[in-house]
Amino acid sequence: MKKIILATMMFGMFLASCTKNSQQEAFKYSVDTFYDVEILRYKVPGFEQLSLQQKKLCYYLSEAALSGMDILFDQNGAYNLRIRTALEGLYVNYQGDKKAEEFLALERYLKRVWFSNGIHHHYGADKFLPEFSQEWFVAACEQCGVTYDEAILPVMFDPTVLAKKINQTAGEDLILTSACNYYEGVTQKEAQAYYDAHKDKSAQPLWIGLNSKLVKKDGKVVEETYKVGGLYGEALEKVNFWLEKAKEVAENDQQKTVIQKLIDFNATGDLKTFNEYCIAWVQDLDSRVDFVNGFTETYGDPLGVTAAWESMVNFKDLEATQRAQLIAENAQWFEDNSPTDKRFKKENVTGVSAKVITAVILSGDCYPATPIGINLPNANWIRKEYGSKSVTIDNITDAYNAVANESGFAEEFMLPEIIDAYKKNGTRCSSLHTDLHECAGHGSGKLLDGVSKDALKEYSATIEETRADLFGLYFMADKKMIELGLLETPDDYKSYYYQQMMNGLLTQLVRIEPGKDLEQSHMRNRQLIALWVLKNAKNNEVEVIQQDGNYFVKINDYEGLQKLYGELLATIQRITSEGDYQAAKDLVEEYAVKINPEWHKNILERYAHLNLAPYKGFVNPVYTPVLDKNGEITDIQVDYTEGYVEQHLRYSKDYSFLTKK
Ligand code: ZN
Q1: Confidence class for position 350, pLDDT limits 50, 70, 90
Q2: What is the 3-state composition of the chain as percent helix, strand, coil, each rounded to the nearest 5?
Q3: Residue 265 lies in a domain
């Protein structure tokens, strides 16, 4: 409760917010830059217009979001929290020259640790090393009276120790070679045997392993469950404290049920309760304020079973929601007209809800790097029986676009003939593609009877993202878009096709170090699509050309390109529906992993000249309750002025429930 300030102290706040208003036109999106990262701010337009009850709900859910953030840090690596605490201790208590190279290197490293929620690159998964020496660190800690666990030293400084967060190299023991903290003392074979033996084969299966760490105890593999009183209990208890408050100001009974189910799940770790929570959540369509809070996405587990903790609080953007709604309403039309085999189509595409949201707070796996669209829940049987909720996050996209427009990126990497079209339609097309991907793509198609949802194993994430992306790409060029009023002219989609090919083949490589492979599912899926299309373009529909020694994508036949996207979509849908593991493996290994070193080198050189950061992340706004003299909340104020370092130090001070102070 330390953030609540009294009304008698409000005068200063009021002045601060006046100043803020007068500066509103000069809202500064860019906050900080380090290594390959740029930190941005995002606006929360419409927050002031919410009712007091909705604002309180947002506030309590935001506190619940921040209370769980350290869970992800620990899931990403067993030493992460100890390392962060030591680094912050030294950073705050440092008594030497703060302009010295070592101190600046400490600051850069700490910023990167915050950004990655650990010591491995948030996207590439490789460990990054400090630019200060172990000797300097040890001596500086001693001088400044900072104590730490010596076990962190090799983890920080020895490049061979815990080198990769997630290893996806086929043939190796993915668990033993991954640094993430979902398993302890267990081999991949043992973990897989455990999951196979405990698999729930009922019609409404429990997601065994979703919320637990597998550990070896007395020679036996057992689950340590994430729950109050169990693993991460101290954080989950605080999450529940704020959820209780949120429940009191819920907008309706359905939302109250959702929050209560989540409280129960956090308290017990019971997976049946989790299923009930997911079903209640997906059925809550009327509330303006909504949230994700808990163990959600499984990309961080090399076996794709256990989920990372994340949270995002948001409210519906009523106007923009109509756009996405239109796509959702036409989901059956898309399904019927998609180029996939009839056997793999859903007869009834149900409950694809769609809305555009304004993010209020980001936490855990959504922070500082954040998605621009979400489609949940992840359990296929719930999606099939109850539908799913799809959202695109407009205020985050707006922030991205605001900084991208003036970067010089388009001028460097696009052929001149496409730049104007890209600047005119780029933003709208990418929102539309996100809507199609989330609202229609993921919900489309079906598995044949008897095919397990995890038949594609380690390739499932890449294949699923490929499927949803292709679905969006294919239909963007359809005249249905114009019929629905989503695009204006039959040419509007073209700059997006160009962008997809350019990004998938060339420009996304700016995120990868020379000599490395593609690891991340979304990057793999983008290259899979673009490279497959390039190699199968028999009529020169698209090519990579060289001009003055630089590589460019050139598209010669846009309609032909749509056909190729459609062809690949049909293949990917077949692989998904039949659970064809071998075909998935062949496609991913052939098109999605290896990088063309010559293109890569050229792109990196050109990119370096632009001086841009390939990754973006965010700082959150600060929400402060205004109290009257009886201690009642009369308003929630939003402030956008907090810096990146300040924010993380404050979060560590106020929300570190998993570290001993
Ligand atoms: Zn997706």
Answers
A1: low
A2: 50, 15, 35
A3: no
